[in-house]
Fold:
Amino acid sequence: MQQVLDALKKVPVLVLGDVVVDHYVFGITTRISREAPVPVVVHESEEVRPGGAANAAVNVVALGARCLLLGVVGRDAAATSFRAVMKQRSVSLVLVVEKGRPTAQKTRVLAGAQGTSCQQVLRLDRDPPGPPSAVTIHELSARMDTAVRGGARALLLSDYGHGLFQTDVLDRAVRLARGGLPVLVDSRYALSRVKGPVVLKPNAPELAELVGLPVNTMQEAVAACRAVLKRSGARAIVNTRGRDGMVVVPDKGAPTILAAHLFTDVTDVTGAGDTVASALITGMAAGIPLHQAARLANAAASVVVAKLGAATASPAEVLEILRREGSAP
Structure:
């Protein structure tokens, strides 16, 4: 498995999706406000972290690959902060700026009494009002084609519902897949519209919604995946199932069922889906068989759920999980 992880080094991956700025504000609560029954939070510190497709991008880099992130931002302070934090994470950026459109940002206020752990007391979302303009989408599509011509070996579409995939971006990605480019679609909203030889990554609720049937057992999940494959013409389905692990169902051949690594303590599942998508697409870019890439993704997910907040998994951490599982030397 060390040889497989080595194959990920420096492989160029393109991530196209909804950029989100995760803004965290930390403080201490000492009293309740006289103005309303809410805690008064005394500001201590704050930081900006990559969210949405950006979290997927930093996970690609953490595995040793190179990543180009393509997305849409506004002309605002959030975009400036975002560029700085992504530079620190060694992610290359091609950002289309749309005037008058805010950069998506989620501000979380975390606070606790002196000497206690912080808890989230407020989340304030600043979302774009709708899909990007036709001009922005045209430029985004052109930049996607340029990145692929420039050497990107695989494409991850990371959809957080801000309208990028309500447009011909999805159709262009499918055309690239038909041309032989490995494409993975990680979407809460657009999976039903994908028709082509891509890999789809629904979680259990998304899969159930796609087929309109329960997917509570592995047998039901495999049957649902086969129904989606038949309808969509997808190359494979990777169904993530939380504590029940994941299953890879290809268009041809037997499914691969991977149990979750239950020897790790689950601290926070935030961003685990991005980690799975990142490991899958990085493996696909390196030419690793999908079932092996899924094994890496399963191990990477077990690393990040043991950490607080959206996190990443290093090759060494992934290898340690696989060794504990017994599937690595």
About this structure: The longest helix spans residues 134-149. The first strand starts at residue 12 and ends at 17. The domain at 2-21+49-104+128-325 is CATH 3.40.1190.20 (UDP-N-acetylmuramoyl-L-alanine:D-glutamate ligase). The chain has one domain: 2-21+49-104+128-325.
